[in-house]
Specification:
Blueprint: E1 2-3, H1 9-17, E2 23-27, E3 33-38, H2 39-44, H3 51-54, E4 56-57, H4 68-78, E5 82-86, E6 92-97, H5 98-108
Parallel strand pairs: 1-2
Antiparallel strand pairs: 2-3, 3-4, 5-6
Helix pairs in contact: 4-5
Length: about 110
């Protein structure tokens, strides 16, 4: 789930609650990832503030050339359920879910 920097946090929170993810990614018009909004932060902040004012800037990202096995191991070691995938210019490509990656490796890996 993504939002623009100028989006109001109250509106973003409603969309996050309806999504399978507990966060939103703040992206530019060209889909460059600027930050992340966790649901827990959205619950506690002023709903009229903007995503840019509230976001955690510069979330960690991965590139798609990473091998899946080592990536899953790294996510597991760090207790992460997701990885944000971007291209070399920082544009959002998608989300890698650890549980889906583990299932893929178990069946096709």
């Amino acid at each position: 789930m993504t939002c623009a920097p100028a989006d109001r946090v109250g509106e973003v929170y409603e969309r996050v609650k309806a999504s399978p993810y507990r966060f939103a990614l703040v992206v530019t018009e060209t889909r460059c990832v600027l930050g992340r909004l966790r649901a827990s932060a959205l619950e506690e902040c002023d709903p009229t503030s903007t995503a840019e004012q509230t976001m955690e800037p510069g979330p960690s990202t991965i590139r798609l050339h990473r091998e899946l096995g080592p990536l899953v191991e790294q996510l597991h070691q760090r207790g992460f359920r997701f990885a944000i995938a971007t291209d070399p210019d920082g544009r959002l490509v998608g989300i890698v879910r650890r549980d889906e990656a583990e299932s893929f490796l178990a069946h096709d890996g």
